[in-house]
């Protein structure tokens, strides 16, 4: 990752997103303007080079015209330079012309004697098949461009090299440069405006499906959580629409779950509340203290059962909504099972049930301690509740290659194979369980299933050893 890319990425994360249209226009038009500016500079330089070459060619032509009039007469270099020889060139350039013809020994033969000499470091021009050098100099307070041509001269008595210099002021070149600059900027500005208009229109056209999607979502009814048609947008945006559809599907399931929970809770609570009302009315009409005491005991028992049901309902709601899923951490399943065993020891002793624990010193799983405690409590409570007096309940925790296995086995009535999946749903009770405990809630194993799902664990029910009783196995992934 380059430093520039990393810097841009940090700035994008820190800056608010703002308008997608404006960002697209900025990221398209700003680089375009910069590229057009660089292109304008390049075109301007190329045009100046072409103009300089054209002017230098004309300057060389004038220098050669003068060179043709240089000859040797009577042992001296002479130059027959009428003004008309430079008149056409002066008219073309619209600038002032200066010239100088120097003899073999450097003496001035004709022209302006003080015209600047050729600098020593000026190389010969490779663009023309002539011994010519071009250079800039200051003359009479003005900048001039001078062509210096070495011209061989000879006759029967002598031979040598004469130097012909022709200079012109830069007025014409500067005028042409300004014209080239203005023309280049004008063409580039027109091109930028045209491209900007096309880009704006293209961005507006491309973003139109998003606006249709926005309108379609805004116009939906509050209870409409159906999928949005992915064909409304481009394929690059379809993953976003698919994610929206997934979110709305989860919201639909959550709302349906809440409605189902409210319906089930109201149905389950209606019966004990009706019983409580009936018992209270009987107590009000009863005059016998002993009979009233029995009714009050019934009210207390019904109240306990109702509180137990309400607590189970609240636990199930909390687990189903995943309120604890964000607080996963490595916890000791062994410690939780041992704690639950101690808490349930008294009910086991009261029923003369042999409650045993077989677990390693420590077995870690990723989970939420309170929810795991609720899971183990429900398993052990169900095992003790549906195991007859003198039976056994065995708790085991094993570390295996696939993870950590929790196993609760009892010698109770068991569950027939056809009902083992059904008892994991809320409020379903097997026939054998209803015979033993008619006042049960049917929520214990449903809570176990929801807690296991929250921890991504697998629940399996089968017959205990000797095909008597129930064995519940839950496989957890080991903590990382």
UniProtKB/TrEMBL annotation:
Q: Which GO terms describe its molecular function?
A: kinase activity
Q: Which residues cross the membrane?
A: 24-44, 185-207
Q: Where's the Histidine kinase domain? A: 264-480
> Which EC number applies?
2.7.13.3
Pfam families the UniProt entry points to:
2CSK_N, HATPase_c, HisKA
Q: Where in the cell is it found?
A: Membrane
Q: Which InterPro entries match?
A: 2CSK_N, HATPase_C_sf, HATPase_dom, His_kinase_dom, HisK_dim/P_dom, HisK_dim/P_sf, Sig_transdc_His_kin-like_C, TCS_sensor_his_kinase
What is this enzyme's catalytic activity, as reactions?
Answer: ATP + protein L-histidine = ADP + protein N-phospho-L-histidine
Q: Which keywords are on file for this protein?
A: Kinase, Membrane, Phosphoprotein, Transferase, Transmembrane, Transmembrane helix
Q: Can you name this protein?
A: histidine kinase
Q: Which organism is it from?
A: Massilia aquatica
């Amino acid at each position: 990752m380059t430093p520039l890319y990393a810097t841009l990425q940090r700035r994008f994360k820190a800056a608010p997103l703002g308008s997608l249209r404006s960002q697209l226009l900025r990221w398209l038009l700003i680089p375009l303007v910069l590229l057009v500016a660089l292109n304008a500079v390049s075109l301007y330089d190329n045009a100046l080079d072409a103009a300089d070459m054209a002017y230098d060619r004309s300057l060389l032509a004038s220098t050669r015209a003068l060179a043709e009039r240089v000859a040797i007469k009577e042992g001296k270099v002479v130059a027959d330079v009428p003004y008309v020889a430079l008149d056409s060139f002066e008219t073309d350039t619209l600038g002032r012309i200066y010239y100088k013809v120097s003899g073999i020994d450097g003496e001035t033969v004709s022209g302006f004697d003080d015209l600047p000499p050729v600098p020593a470091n000026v190389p010969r021009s490779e663009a023309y098949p002539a011994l010519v050098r071009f250079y800039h100099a200051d003359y009479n307070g003005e900048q001039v461009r001078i062509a210096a041509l070495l011209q061989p001269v000879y006759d029967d008595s002598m031979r040598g090299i004469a130097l012909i210099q022709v200079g012109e002021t830069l007025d014409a070149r500067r005028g042409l440069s300004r014209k080239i600059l203005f023309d280049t900027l004008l063409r580039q500005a027109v091109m930028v405006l045209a491209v900007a208009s096309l880009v704006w229109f293209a961005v507006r056209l491309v973003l139109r499906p998003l606006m249709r999607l926005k309108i379609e979502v805004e116009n939906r009814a509050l209870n409409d959580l159906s999928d949005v048609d992915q064909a409304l947008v481009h394929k690059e945006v379809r993953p976003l629409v698919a994610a929206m559809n997934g979110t709305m599907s989860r919201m639909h399931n959550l709302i349906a779950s809440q409605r189902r929970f409210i319906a089930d809770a109201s149905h389950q609570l209606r019966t004990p509340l009706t019983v409580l009302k009936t018992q209270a009315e009987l107590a009000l009409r009863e005059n016998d203290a002993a009979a009233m005491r029995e009714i009050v005991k019934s009210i207390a028992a019904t109240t306990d059962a109702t509180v137990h049901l309400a607590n189970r309902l609240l636990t199930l709601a909390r687990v189903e909504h995943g309120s604890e899923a964000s607080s996963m951490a490595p916890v000791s399943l062994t410690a939780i099972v041992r704690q639950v065993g101690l808490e349930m020891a008294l009910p086991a002793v009261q029923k003369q049930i042999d409650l045993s624990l077989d677990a390693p010193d420590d077995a870690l799983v990723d989970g939420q301690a309170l929810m795991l405690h609720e899971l183990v409590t429900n398993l052990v409570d169900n095992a003790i509740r549906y195991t007859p007096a003198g039976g056994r309940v065995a708790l085991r925790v094993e570390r295996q290659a696939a993870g950590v296995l929790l196993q609760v086995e009892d010698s109770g009535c068991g569950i027939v194979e056809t009902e083992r999946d059904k008892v994991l749903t809320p409020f379903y009770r097997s026939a054998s369980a209803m015979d033993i405990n008619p006042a049960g809630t049917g929520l214990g194993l449903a809570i176990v299933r929801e807690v296991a799902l929250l921890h991504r664990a697998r629940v399996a029910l089968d017959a205990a050893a000797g095909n008597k009783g129930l064995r519940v196995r839950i496989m957890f992934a080991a903590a990382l």
